[in-house]
Protein: Tetratricopeptide repeat protein
Amino acid sequence: MRVHQAGDLDAAERLYGEVLELHAAQPDALHFLGVLAHQRGRSDEAVLLISSALKIIPKHPDAHNNLGNVHKECGRLADAERCYRRALACAPEHYQAQSNLAVVLEAQERLDEAFEAYSKLIQQAPTYAHGYYRLGLFLRNYAQNEEHLQQSAECFRESYRHDPANVRALEGVGVALYMLHRHDEAADVYRQWLEREPDNPVPRHMLASCGAAEAPPRAADDYVRDVFDGFAESFDEQLIQNLGYRAPEVLVGMLDEVTPVDGASLDVLDAGCGTGLCAPLLRARARRLVGVDLSGGMVDKARLRGGYDALEVAELTAWLEAHPQAFDLIVSADTLVYFGQLGPVLAAAAGALRPGGWLGFTLEAVEGDDEVAELTSSGRYRHSRPYVEHLLAGSGFEAVVVREDTLRREAGKPVHGWVVRARRSHSPDGA
Structure:
């Protein structure tokens, strides 16, 4: 277990195996080998191992909780809920199981039950920083009035008070204040944060996002890397919480209209692959599927999910420029929202596509007839349709289609976006 906790999975797996050779029904070895199997992407094996342990120790709350985690991360929410409830039946004070129960109730959109579960979590564990953070997110995501946003801000403050290392809680305070139209207070939060941590890229970027500093042409590499490395462990869980997230499915569905869905005939790039949510949707059409992301933590998760022939950690524009005419299809779901000026990355994408190849991506939308790219309080950029169409045409693309759709929910409201498809021209000048 010590080797496992230290992150040496090879040695831990070997040692658990040695224990089970000595004692085939040793429940702790079965349990933790199951946890390790899930960490390595062998989730079916994990279920069998932890279930075997529970036949021997049926009232072990941690084993029920970890089995629930496997089901949750595989999207089997009802199975996960049952496991968490069994853990709580064995140990009513098990606040990790209580937290996980709240998550899966929210994911099933049983919002009243989820709120009760989060509230009970805070009562059970009044110093549990992550519990306040979860409740803050819940209140912000489903806010119906200003009071909910105020409560959200207070939860984030409590989270930070109990865990000053959790800078995402400070970011949560700032975003909630901005949404309450208390822009000066939001800016003060980011300034004070930046004074305490002058080298931290997050408050620097968020200060610009609330209009208190000049917006950069795109989010800085260190900001994106810092945010998503810190977010990697809970990224899929956060998306599960918000069942409205549908960018990968909507985007790939649009590309289905113009590219072969199966046959493994295309060289495909998942640009900004994150934890690999697009891989299952792209695998059947890909002769070769490559994923690229700036966050090493996210790429590690994509590697565990599987489905890629190659994964690389790199800045997207430079990586595209280094791979001329390498792909038939480039897909980018919710990545270009961190680019304000799209010209360089679109030109690089055109260069990385073979003539006639397709590019598909999503953006957050701003309405109007002007060419607009603006940084928002979320830290992401929004773009207008004329801006996108103009840059695509100037970058050597044709057959441009821009559709409006809802990509997810935020603060209880739909986030409207553009789902974009374009083909690289066969001629070098785009004619």
Remarks:
- The CA atoms of residues 186 and 346 lie 33 Å apart.
